[in-house]
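Please review this one.

:::
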Amino acid sequence: MSEAVTRPGITADALLASLDPLLRAWLPRQRWFAGKGRPITDFTVVSATELLPPTSELGLLHLLVQVGQPQVPGQAGGAPPPPPDCYQLLLGVRRELPPRLAPALIGHVTRGLLSGFTVYEALHDSRMSGFLLEALRTQARVGKLRFERDQRKEIGNGLTPRVLAAEQSNSSLVYGDTFILKLFRRIVPGVNPDLELPLMLAREGCAQVPAPAAWFLADVGHPKDSVNVLGVLQPYLKGTVDGWDLALGELAEGRDFSGEARALGRATADVHLALARALPTVTLGRAQMERIAEGMADRLATAARAVPALQPYAPALHTTFDALADLGRGEETWTAQRIHGDLHLGQCLRSPAGEWSLIDFEGEPSRPLAERRMPQPPVRDVAGMLRSFDYAARSHEPWAPEWAGDCRAAYCTGYAEVSGRDPRTDPVLLRAYETDKAVYEVFYEARHRPDWLPVPLAAIKRLATNGPATDPH
């Protein structure tokens, strides 16, 4: 692998002159594009690297592009507006697109530097995606891109790549059923927890989290935040089923899931204990608990303004956060540590042997990176999983509240068996975090999936009327 070839005339302005009209039409249609519903005003090229310089037949461009858009109304609340979202793009360039790549088409360039070429999503081209694996295997440096790996892990060459169809906030490539490369689409400067935490857990010998084999970065931006993690290569856990699909399948067949939920609770506790060993923990007292409660109350107020259906329940929900603030005024303290941050059934994989793995440690992408990397009470992850059991039960016809209650109780029991502390013994804290999660779900579903809004609203009604945070068993 060699340094990127930069030809005269390859400038940000020259590239944008060719790509601007195509990207304006293509980007908003992508599942991972966060700015849906707002017009694109401009593009700024942060980094442009020719991984394969365009020839008469073929080229591969790696771009980091900031997308200018109007600010969401009420988002800043008097604070400085956030920087534009930055996205990672891998663009293939050909004179003619073969029929097999037709679904990857971005557009035909009619002006500027790339006039006469066809641009397409390069991940669907095996030659292009194979280039990424080779760069990781050989620890290449290409322009401002750095490809790194764990030397103890063997990475074979010639593994056939395929794109996973279930694209969400990121994109994934599987190489020969041996590795999976997760490509981050929305790039935030700083240490990405989805690389940081699995590396830490690997050093702790935590078997519940796949250890990264390789990763790549971009050296761009101000020196203090120049780490930009672009992708992570991990073992592909062949034959595993994600917890969401597994739970829905068991529900459809009328089968009990509490045994799996209990095992998942044990796996979660194992990961939490390993994180507490690997990274510093902090003690939360009165000031910290009041600050947590205040943040929850603020998020409730924001969501209630945006979603009218939430407003009738807001006063009752607010009392939950008041109770949390009052709890902090006693003598008791709590421990905060690094956690998963966005734990739900879809972030868990069960092997054919019945073992659970936890994946995707990025946290909630909508929250600032600094917040996602802060120590937090482990019960936040527990609350996220309890909400996920409720989601599964609510998505089934007829609704299966007993199934959800059994799973929630079994998960807490399994967690207590390993951690030594049952989350249900902290009911005020658990209720507050479950309420905060349900408020987030209402806000999310109202914006992205209105048909799903009744699911979190049902939980909001239960929590507002003082129903149990976890069903007692």
